[in-house]
Design a protein that fits this description.
The chain has 164 residues and is of the alpha/beta class. Helix content is 32%, strand content 18%. The longest helix is centred in the first third of the chain and has 14 residues, at 46-59.
């Protein structure tokens, strides 16, 4: 545990590489791809075990039960966009412009893209499901190849002309 931050960190080995899981006060605050774990894990808290179990479910095509708190840090606008992203169903996508329309401001496409790019909880707040208006694989902090893999894993068919 990081004493100064009162944060627990654990690591999950996914088919795409290592995922670092950060929790604080029994809530998931961040989850992202890393090359290799930087430190030895201390005893893992129950919430970290549950998050790892749900990641295993996701990668093994089993249903998710996100019965833990998620508290990503962000501005009120970012929080609103992330709530909208949470509504995108497994195997479905939305364009940045469609998400801006759902937010209520069709001109906010760039701001929506910026908010999505700052999403600290990948996979569970499924920003990989947000694509360009023409179906292109744009803007994923976890890398475009990982975005493509996640979408294909969920059954989304990617057109070869729009592929990487």
């Amino acid at each position: 545990m990081h004493k100064a931050l009162n944060m627990e960190i654990s690591h999950y080995k996914s088919p795409l590489g290592w995922i670092e899981i950060e929790t604080k006060e029994e809530a998931l605050i961040a989850m992202h791809f890393i090359l290799t774990p930087k430190e030895n894990q201390s005893p893992i808290k129950k919430i970290n075990c549950e998050i790892e179990a749900q990641l295993a479910n996701y990668f093994n095509n089993k249903s998710l039960d996100l019965n833990f708190k998620m508290k990503p840090k962000g501005t009120p606008f970012q929080q609103e966009i992330w709530k909208l992203v949470l509504q995108i169903e497994f195997g479905k996508t939305l364009s940045y412009s469609e998400l801006a329309n759902r937010y209520g401001n069709k001109k906010a496409i760039r701001a929506v893209g910026s908010a999505i790019g700052k999403n600290p909880i990948m996979i569970f707040i499924p920003c990989h499901r947000v694509i360009g208006s023409n179906g292109s694989m744009v803007g994923y902090a976890g890398g475009i190849p990982n975005k493509k893999w996640l979408l294909e894993h969920e059954g989304f068919l990617i057109q070869k002309s729009l592929d990487l």
